[in-house]
Amino acid sequence: MRSLEGKVALVTGAGGMRGIGRAVALKLASLGADIVLSDVKRTAEDLPPKEVKKQWRSIDSVGEEVEALGRRCLKVWCDLTVSAQIQAMVNEAVAHFGHLDILVNNARAIIGRDRVPVTEMPEDVWQHFLAVNTTAVMLGIKHAGKVMIKQGTGGRIINIASDASKRGRPKTAAYVTSKFAVLGLTQCSALDLAPYGITVNSVCPGAIDSDRMNYLEQAQAQAKGIPLEQYREDVVRETARRIPVGRVGQGEDVANVVAFLASDEASFITGQAYNVNGGALFH
């Protein structure tokens, strides 16, 4: 098994009970890395019902799991729409652990309010998706990249993109555009940072059963008069039928690829975008 002993990894969007960020953090911790967990504080209205029922405490709960694995953990609340908070997050990570070796840009905007034709797209929704899904990724790379260059020991940056970064769909202009941009940013950053031994790659998940909040699903469940959990289970079941391997993905499926890209074994891989979608898309 590859080892990340002595490494420090920063994972954004890491507070979801079934999210990719939590799976990534626990995978990296299981391989020996100390972890910086980051997420934004949300109200109960912006949380999946299961998290509310189980009194899940976002990165506080994930932090306890990381420490149970014997790894050190720092928790940093960060609003990714505020540039100064992103720089402060990186600075706090370095001040606490003394170095930063791995950055996983995982956080994304809550989808749903963007699910309209482009002719009806509210500008504030458009700007929010670009701010969280694209600009925050750039700023994370900028500030973490500076740290890694100064350290002189290389580094690993992994951006969680999406299969939406490789194909468009109706009523998804804001999300798709923000994710397409991540791939361009990944390639350019990979070239800029290659001379310093820092690799930059993207992972592009397809359908993942992460139970993340979705305003559109919430509205559709209400319209049908059924609980959101029941509606989501129906969606997962129907989606699985369209995936060649016969199931939707789990956070761990993405985390396994991230762990490889974070390791020394991936030192000759940079600027790439890896699909994790059960064969639903080849591109």
What topology does this entry show?
Blueprint: E1 8-11, H1 20-30, E2 34-39, H2 49-53, H3 59-68, E3 73-77, H4 83-97, E4 102-105, H5 123-151, E5 155-160, H6 173-193, E6 198-205, H7 215-224, H8 228-241, H9 251-262, E7 273-276
Helix pairs in contact: 1-3, 1-9, 4-5, 5-6, 7-8
Structural commentary:
- It is built from nine helices and seven strands, in the order E-H-E-H-H-E-H-E-H-E-H-E-H-H-H-E.
- It has 283 residues and is of the alpha/beta class.
- The protein has a seven-stranded parallel sheet, with helices on both faces.
- Helix 4 (83-97) packs parallel to helix 5 (123-151) and helix 7 (215-224) crosses helix 8.
- It has a single domain (8-214, 250-276), classed as 3-Layer(aba) Sandwich (Rossmann fold), CATH 3.40.50.720.
N/C terminus separation: 29 Å
Strand content: 5-15%
Q: What name is given to the CATH topology?
A: Rossmann fold
CATH superfamily: NAD(P)-binding Rossmann-like Domain
- The helix/strand series, from N terminus to C terminus, equals EHEHHEHEHEHEHHHE
- SS class: alpha/beta
CATH architecture: 3-Layer(aba) Sandwich
Label the overall shape. globular
CATH class: Alpha Beta
| Alpha-carbon Rg, integer | 18 Å
Largest sheet: 7 strands, parallel
How many β-strand stretches? 7
Q: Helix count, per DSSP?
A: 9
Detail the poorly predicted runs: none
Our count of domains comes out at 1
State mean pLDDT (0 to 100 scale). 95
